[in-house]
Structure prediction request, 337 residues.
Amino acid sequence: MKIGFLTDFDGYRAPIHPESIEKYSLAVHLEKNIFDYLNYADSSQENVKNISNLSDLDIVACVENIQDKTLKELKEGAVLIGIFDFDKIEKIKSLRPDIKVLSFFKLPRISRAQNLDALSSQANLLGYASVLRAAKETSDVVPMMTTAAGNIQPSKVLILGVGVAGLQAIATAKRLGARVWAFDIRKEAKDQVESLGAKFVEASTEAQDSVYAKEVSEEENQKIQEALKKQVIDSDIVLTFAQIPGKKAPVLIEKSTVENMKKNAVIIDLAAGTGGNCEGTEVNKVVEINGVKIIGETDILNTVKHAATKLYSENVRNLIELYIENSEDEIFVEMSS
Prediction:
């Protein structure tokens, strides 16, 4: 069985890390210059070969982008691994219906799949990196500082959406010395938020008992916006992570609320790629409204691309090893359905 790894042509990570290569029992076939984004030299390890013909590969791993030209050259019935959202899966299937697509977006939420969970590993780093991005953008400092000239109060940070990324953002902001508040519509979130030392914002009467947040009615969403308004206005930094799988992101912050925020406040909208949690967010742009910066960047993980590649590489390796052991495992049945 031949395994190949492709360059993330429009990204900044790689599906394999130099430290993972030696852990493979089989030869690994790498696309030329696969590590250019990471400033690593091409590997010279014994089990590494260059990809000479895409149609020779049985399993192909990438990150989240694959060119149509490359897709058309893959072997009939090949296995394609990546972080493909539902729209990308549909596009791949329309071009190559014979290919078996294993997308981490469709990984089942079961305990024995935890070491395969690329979405969680990347989200963890995203939560960390987003706090650092906000700290860089604000003109204030995050922790309390006591000097001979006087005291500076710690920043007030609000986290909206408390999944893996949101929880890591809370932990990172707390470590930096911020005062932290958080909100999520899921019932289990309150205990998680408080266990990290943050305060939970009560803003919904419809607490959901589910792993992922579900879409709410327009009326309920307006109630949430209104309940969050005071806390948003009082915050120095707001980080939003609220997403609904396969749906447009809910708008939690209205433009009128932004206009009443403190001058120099910062909003990092991590849902920008799916519509944004804040009115006024523009994808991959920094917008300023009444002195408040709204950052809609979708490549914040680029700041920790080495760590992101290292973790993703291990998720991919674990997935490939399990697939080679038993390609009919229920995990792959669900991922490719």
Q: What stands out?
A: The first strand starts at residue 3 and ends at 5. Residues 305-325 form the longest helix (21 residues).
